[in-house]
Design a protein that fits this description.
The chain is globular and about 45 Å long. The longest helix has 21 residues, at 2-22. 9% of the residues lie in helices and 46% in strands. Strands 1-2-6 form a three-stranded antiparallel beta sheet, with no helix packed on it. By secondary structure, the protein is mainly beta.
Length: 224
């Protein structure tokens, strides 16, 4: 009886361990990373003649465990017949799990007003990891923003503060314009390095403001 009882207990222990090991079907280590998403996007044209695409995007990392080591998108412009006018790649730094970043950029359209512009994430599985290969993008503090306009051009000015614990080599500053709550494009500039706790003024010059905008926001991130 003792031998039989021991055998039953051992068998139950083995099955219990197998059951625990397979519970839920997946673990942190065999989950596939989820692709970055472009949650919002918009654009306007830099001018009526010889235009460039002045775009803005909100990019989100939907993963709980995975960093993306270099967020990357492709901006493709199409004519009315669906032909590609131009395609422009763009990449940024690492995005932490669950975080979103806001960027403005400039894309080519071969100086032809596009009928449609698409934003596609181009990261591969190799771009995701459970530890970043460098410092992640961190939103910095922006203050004293203002729009200066005259009959020839406009500019958005303000101050970026490095709220990080270490010095940074520079910052990417984006002004994003909105109309009725939807982003409709933007423009960007870089600043020089900023010491920890230090501030740096910026000036984003814009030849032609987007038509009908009713709000704007300025975002700044550490640059590498």
């Amino acid at each position: 009886m003792n031998k039989l009882l021991k055998a039953l207990l051992c068998a139950g222990l083995v099955f219990g361990l197998v059951g625990c090991g397979s519970s839920g079907g997946e673990t942190k280590y065999n989950n596939e990373p989820k692709e970055l998403t472009v949650e919002e996007s918009g654009y306007f044209l830099s001018s009526d003649t010889s235009p460039y695409i002045m775009y803005s995007v909100k990019v989100t990392n939907p993963n709980e465990d995975y960093y993306v080591n270099s967020a990357a998108i492709n901006v493709t412009a199409y004519d009315a017949e669906g032909n590609i006018l131009a395609s422009t790649p763009q990449s940024w730094g690492p995005i932490a799990p669950g975080e979103s970043v806001y960027f403005a950029g400039q894309a080519d359209c071969n100086q032809v007003a596009p009928a449609n512009v698409e934003f596609e994430v181009t990261n591969t599985k190799d771009d995701y990891s459970e530890n970043p290969d460098r410092e992640v993008l961190t939103e910095l503090e922006v203050s004293n923003t203002n729009i200066m306009q005259d009959q020839f051009s406009s500019s958005v000015t303000g101050v970026v503060k490095n709220t990080m614990d270490e010095d940074i080599g520079g910052s990417w500053v984006s002004v994003i314009f909105y109309k009725e709550g939807a982003m409709i494009g933007g423009k960007f500039t870089f600043t020089e390095g900023i010491s920890s706790g230090g501030e740096m003024p910026f000036d984003i010059s814009i030849y032609q403001m987007p038509e009908g905008y009713d709000d704007y926001k300025v975002y700044a991130y550490n640059w590498f």
